[in-house]
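cache lookup: miss for this entity combination. No prior model stored, computing from scratch. Input as submitted by user K.M.:
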Amino acid sequence: MIEMQDVWKEYGNGVAALSGISVRIAQGEFCYVVGPSGAGKSTFIKLMYREEKPTKGQIFVGGFNIERLRERQIPMMRRHIGVVFQDYKLLQPLTVYENVSFALEVIEASRKTIQKRVAEVLELVGLTEKANMLPRELSGGEQQRVGIARALVNKPSVIIADEPTGNLDPDNSWTIMKLFQRVNDRGTTIVMATHNRELVNSVRKRVIAIEQGRIVRDQERGEYGYED
Ligand code: ADP
Ligand code: ADP
């Protein structure tokens, strides 16, 4: 499902962010990515949805050879990979409904399909009542649930999340985690970079730890393993 083979990433300024990453994540797995700040977690995540390109190595996600994709194939690939961000990245002038329907409109889904699918995902994240509100009228937890609805609307086989609970309090973090678990229970692969020790230690899943650009630990039902 997700595979990296000897992946290296050096940024333009010479910073070596990842140094020889090889990993396989099977369809349906739930995998946390942990490690200190600056370790390379975000870079690892960004390579998976082609926000960054590797300096060297091969990356496969959901059947796409990510580093070989042509620019015009990227939108198609992103329909199969849902991405959730720490800062939500919602379109501020658009309503909740519009933020979620946007991804379906660009693929020219029928009006009926759009209405049905948006209603389904808003129901799933518990925001049916807030469909016509603007992002700034919502709490942080609600905004992140919109971000998750948007990521899910195309029924991706993989959800990639970079610190999705990083701006949220513990209760909202739990709500987000429970949503991810439900999505994962339905067979969607989840890769989640996180600093949330409570979540990692209470909901045991695979843990990949990255330090200084290398995988230093890879455990089934692992633990957070850092004090911060
Ligand atoms: P983490 O998510 O674990 O905090 P990052 O992947 O963001 O780590 O960063 C890994 C290293 O790459 C850090 O040294 C960081 O400063 C550097 N880095 C990240 N993004 C860029 C960039 N766009 N340009 C240059 N260096 C970067
Ligand atoms: P709901 O929102 O459906 O009422 P709860 O928030 O009460 O559900 O919690 C559902 C599950 O998540 C429970 O099993 C509970 O133990 C666990 N949980 C909720 N909040 C925390 C927390 N802060 N720390 C550890 N476990 C939690």
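stored under new cache key. The radius of gyration is 17 Å.
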